[in-house]
Amino acid sequence: MCMCMTGKIYPLPDGRGTVVGAPLISLIISLIIRHAIIPDVNILDELRNEVASCTLCSELADFRTQTVFGDGTIEAEVMFIGEAPGADEDAQGIPFVGRAGRFMNECMAQVGIPRSKVFIANTLKCRPPDNRNPQPEEMDNCSTFLTAQIAIINPKIIAPLGNFGLQRMISNKYKIGEVHGRPIRRRDGLIYFPMYHPAAALHRANLRETIQIDFKKLAKLLKREGLL
Ligand code: URA
Hints:
about 10% strand, 10 helices, Uracil-DNA Glycosylase, subunit E, two-stranded antiparallel sheet
């Protein structure tokens, strides 16, 4: 067992130490200190290791093949935030590699946004059984990792994909159908650009064009901001 700085007690499987459950600040400080001591260490890879050993959501930890940390470059100016890994992502350990991911790749290619220049993450790093919706407690548990990813990558634009990403990142009072394709600029300069989840186009064919148009708008925004 581990008494973390929150005062909560978390079980440590196999006696392995982990900072999961500690406040975000202590996670980030520990990563920064390690980076300072060993400059060659990739801080994002360090975080990836923390994610891989997480067992906070025991049902997800038991069910997963592996965690799905995220995909992309630490230098990304745009970060997409999806929902949770599906079966293909769980098998490959990479987000958005199934049907929805292939459609997303197509949309990005059409407007000249290279996947290699963005970072793609999810609200959950583990696949929920039967692809059920992420539960609020699971998203709370995982939010330390998502917030740390955002802090490390420091993107100029965050594009939540679908309601889960939107409500996690911005507010519960928004619905994706009402705010997609419209930039929301924060006072500190960060821009949110909510978009439909690419999987929505697989279930509702009429959203295909809407999503393609929103990717066009995103590319335009990137150009206007000097990021593409
Ligand atoms: N859907 C998501 O939200 N994330 C993935 O990684 C794949 C499908």
